[in-house]
Amino acid sequence: MTLNDWFEKAFSPDVYIEGMETNKDGLLSIYDNFELPEDKAFIEHLQNQNLRAIVLTEDWCGDAMLNVPILLRIAKEANMDVRMLLRDENLELMDQYLTNGKARSIPIFIFIDEDGREVGKWGPRAQVIQDFVDDSRAKLPPKDAPDHKEKAQEMYMFMNKSFRDHHDFWMDVYESLKAELSNTKE
Questions:
Q1: d(Cα 92, Cα 96) in Å, to the nearest integer?
Q2: Where is pLDDT greater, at 165 or 184?
Q3: Beta bridge partners of 99
Q4: Is residue 89 part of a domain?
Q5: pLDDT(25) > 80
C-alpha cells in the first residue's frame, strides 16, 4: 500500500477520540489547555505545504496522550488534514517506522505531500521527553526484583500525570514538531 492508501484507510481524529477509553480525558485536557505560540511564519509555511499527516497511535499510550493534541492544535491552525491508524491493527505500516530499527514505539507522525510522498516523520517523543523517560526508567529496580512490576506501574502513572500537568513538556513537543516540519520544502 502507498502512503496515500494508508491515509485513505485511516480515520479522523474525532472518531479516534470518541472511541478512546484510557487516556481520553488527558488528551482532551492537553488539547483544551495548550495554546499555540504566535508563530505566523511557521503556520504559513505549513499552509503553503498542503501537508497531510498519518498518525500511528493507541489509546493506552501516554506519549500519544501528550503528543497527539499538540499536533492537532498545529494542524487546526495550518489546515492540515490528520488521520489516525491504530498501531496494533496496522503493523505492516508500523513496521516501516520502527524506533531504533526494532521498537514499535508510538505515536509516529508521518507527514505526506499532496502526491502522497513522505516529507517528514516525527515520533515517538521529543528529546526532552525521552531524557525524562530514560531518567525515570533508570531509577527502577532490576527487572528480576520482586517490586519491579509495582514500581514500573507507579512510574507510568507518574509519567502520565507529568505529561498532563507539565506545560513545559507541551512546549517541548511543539518545538520538536516545529523543527521537523520546518524542514519540509515548499
A1: 7
A2: 165
A3: 103
A4: yes
A5: yes
What's the structural domain count of the chain?
1
Q: Identify the domain containing residue 39 by its residue range.
A: 3-126+169-181
How many CB atoms lie under 10 A from the CB of residue 133?
Answer: 18
pLDDT of residue 186 exceeding 70 = no
3-state secondary structure of 82: strand
40-49 vs 62-78: helix crossing angle, rounded to 10: 80
Per residue in 108-163, pLDDT (tens digit) is: 999 999 999 999 999 999 999 999 999 999 999 999 999 999 999 999 999 999 99
* CA dist list (Å): 1 to 94, 112, 148: 12, 14, 41
Q: Which three cell numbers stand for residue 65?
A: 496522550
Q: Cell numbers at residue 26, please?
A: 488527558
Global pTM reads 0.94
Residue 40 lies in a domain: yes
Which of 124, 50, 54, 64 has the alpha carbon at shortest distance from 84?
Answer: 54
Question: Could you tell me the CATH number of the domain that includes residue 24?
Answer: 3.40.30.10
